[in-house]
């Protein structure tokens, strides 16, 4: 793989087809690029307008058959459509992040650190395949519920595909952000590993210098090694700060979407837990019908919670690896007696302590284990509240 854009090509093509403002191909002629961009924006507007019309027709169809259209679908459609103008607005910033990552990877490669594009390509392909499989599984799960009411496989296949489409688009958007954060985390890990190698090299050079201190060529070589080590520290410092800057830029691009997904997650959790409790306490319903309803709702709540847990875990890991660099630098100062090198390292540590990396949702909250714990408290509170409240047997 020659660059990160090539490694992400399967994902960008998928996003391109789903209506996101991500262009997987580059054009040298500005007029051709302008024409294709305008055509693509027109394609986005027409495709989503057709989708909304189909959803409204589907809602009417379900109401005619005395079935409620899932109200939780409307927030998913709204957030999916909201992400489209946001992705168009931040398209340039997103592409700049990819270009910066490519430049940083080239710099790290000159230091002897591999870019690992082949692994990223495998992860990207696996993510696209996993998203397609997850979409088929979730639609098949909801298809059981529609099969119970319509008794035809055609409607059981088509209805979940239409109703869940917006939710799947939002999920793909989340997966893209998770993949990029995971790659940034791997780059922080490589920086920390390289600093650890510099510490080991410093120990070896001290031993060699102790044995050959009486010869002037060795002294000159030691001075040269100090200068080279200081340059490497400066390079690593700028790479680390640039990775933090890229993380903040990605947070700006995807922050609106993730903040809206947190709101949707809480609404969805309340909706599913309440209806799930009603289904369980309705003893007069047929056993098979209750099993299908409970299975469908439990499956969706597991998918939603798993996605929230994985995303917050990745955010916590990225912040931990970025802020963990100061620990490796502190160990490096112990074995460094050169004054200028120590000042450079201390400046590096001070910058990390002054502004530690944090991933937020529009600055309102920070993702990570603490936020995950708060979500767990919210779910527990909803469960207790629902159990204590008398159920209304209105679920169909």
Structure description:
With 396 residues, this protein is mainly α. The chain is 83% helix and 0% strand. The protein contains 12 helices and no strands. Helix 6 (117-150) crosses helix 7, helix 9 (216-281) runs parallel beside helix 12 (369-388) and helix 10 (287-334) packs antiparallel against helix 11. The chain is globular and about 80 Å long. The chain crosses the membrane at residues 6-27, 39-57, 69-90, 120-137, 157-184, 262-280, 292-314, 364-387. This is Gustatory receptor. Gustatory receptor which mediates acceptance or avoidance behavior, depending on its substrates.
Mean pLDDT: 76
Structural class by helix and strand composition: mainly alpha
Strand content: under 5%
Percent helix among the residues? over 70%
Largest sheet: none
Rg over CA atoms, rounded to whole Å, is: 27 Å
Number of helices: 12
Q: H/E order of the elements?
A: HHHHHHHHHHHH
What general form does the structure show?
globular
Uncertain parts: 206-211, 213-225
Overall strand count: 0
Distance between the termini: 53 Å
Membrane topology: Multi-pass membrane protein
Subcellular location: Cell membrane
Family: Belongs to the insect chemoreceptor superfamily. Gustatory receptor (GR) family.
GO biological process, one term: sensory perception of taste
């Amino acid at each position: 793989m020659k660059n990160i854009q090539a490694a992400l090509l399967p994902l960008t093509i998928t996003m391109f087809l789903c209506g996101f403002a991500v262009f997987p191909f580059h054009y040298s002629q500005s007029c051709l690029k302008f024409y294709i961009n305008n055509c693509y924006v027109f394609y986005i507007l027409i495709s989503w307008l057709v989708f909304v019309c189909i959803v409204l027709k589907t809602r009417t169809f379900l109401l005619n058959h005395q079935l409620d259209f899932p109200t939780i679908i409307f927030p998913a459609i709204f957030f999916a459509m909201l992400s489209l103008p946001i992705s168009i607005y931040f398209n340039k910033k997103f592409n700049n992040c990819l270009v910066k990552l490519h430049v940083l990877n080239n710099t790290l490669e000159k230091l002897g650190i591999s870019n690992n594009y082949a692994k990223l390509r495998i992860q990207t392909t696996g993510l696209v395949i996993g998203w397609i499989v997850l979409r088929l599984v979730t639609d098949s799960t909801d298809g059981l519920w529609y099969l119970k009411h319509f008794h035809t496989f055609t409607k059981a296949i088509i209805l979940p595909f239409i109703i869940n489409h917006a939710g799947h688009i939002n999920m793909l958007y989340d997966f893209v952000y998770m993949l990029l954060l995971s790659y940034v985390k791997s780059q922080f890990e490589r920086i920390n590993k390289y600093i650890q190698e510099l510490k080991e090299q410093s120990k070896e050079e001290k031993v060699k210098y102790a044995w050959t201190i009486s010869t002037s060529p060795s002294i000159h070589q030691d001075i040269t090694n100090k200068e080279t080590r200081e340059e490497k520290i400066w390079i690593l410092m700028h790479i680390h700060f640039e990775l933090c800057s890229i993380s903040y830029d990605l947070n700006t691009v995807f922050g609106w979407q993730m903040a809206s997904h947190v709101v949707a997650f809480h609404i969805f959790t309340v909706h599913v837990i309440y209806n799930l409790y009603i289904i369980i306490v309705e003893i007069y319903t047929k056993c098979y019908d209750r099993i299908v309803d409970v299975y469908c709702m439990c499956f969706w709540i597991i998918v939603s919670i798993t996605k929230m847990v994985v995303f917050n875990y990745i955010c916590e890991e990225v912040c931990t690896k970025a802020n963990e660099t100061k620990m490796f630098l502190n160990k490096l100062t112990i074995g460094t007696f050169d004054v200028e090198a120590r000042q450079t390292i201390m400046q590096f540590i001070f910058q990390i302590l002054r502004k530690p990396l944090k991933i937020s949702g529009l600055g309102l909250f920070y993702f990570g284990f603490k936020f995950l714990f708060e979500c767990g408290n919210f779910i527990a509170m909803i469960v207790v509240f629902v159990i204590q409240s008398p159920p209304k047997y209105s679920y169909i």
